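# step 3/5: fold
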Amino acid sequence: MKRLKPFSYAEPTGIEEAVQILFAEGPSAFPLAGGTDLLVRMKKGELSPSTLVNLKRIPGLQGIHPEDGKGITIGALSSIASLEFSSFLQRNHPALVDAARALGSPSIRNLGTVGGNIGRASPASDLAPALLALGACISIWGPQGKRAVGMDEIFAGPGKTILLPGEVLVSFFLPEAVPGTRSAYAKIGRRESMDCALASVAVFLRQELGSEKAASVRIALGAVAPTPLRAKKAEEFLLASPLTAKRIGEASRIASEESAPISDLRCSASYRKEMVAVLVRRTLLQLLRSPEPNA
């Protein structure tokens, strides 16, 4: 660890004030949420911010808020642990609960935030595939006001988002989980939750009651491309016919081909591709075996 270089520190009490500071200070200013990644990178000498803007005193950026008949809003400063223990998410969006439980240690989950995890734009993010599969929409606040983007639009590359200067993630919205929907997240790592994913998969599945066909399916992959991504060809294949074991196996192979992993010190690209097929198949079969669709 290196000695931290001097930096300015601000504690705004409103989102407009935070945006103004970040925009005025320029690209060397960083928002501070949980700090579990930012502070480590500063200690390693990877980042040397001129200014840290603490968002924790800003009201309205935390909490999980269901909206009847619409969906649920999750504040960007909500802790990972709050997702893990939310009874509403456990009933309606279990993929996000699975992903939260798979992320780091309990201390990391207590400090780390949803917005910080997504803003880091790590290809191996646990939350990103789950939010992708669940069709999340992100609210962003910046110098020009508020705007919304789909979860599939936020990443520009490894460690990069589409956020413009001064913009801050403020919340995530998940559409209502209608009857017949199921979701799950799974990953493979060298030390399970204590390690970054070697490959991960989140699946959202909706079947019309009494039907063997999928009415809607979304498959999201993590740690196997420059950014988390949807396996859209596999999704289209599954929508065409009833969900048989054979068809699920073929869809898993298609999803594997849609991935674009690299080889690194932890494992090879070919192993990651193989694990995508394994995880997609395993997760889809798990959802089909679920006794009660989530409502």
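# step 4/5: annotate
The radius of gyration is 19 Å.
# step 5/5: archive (pending)
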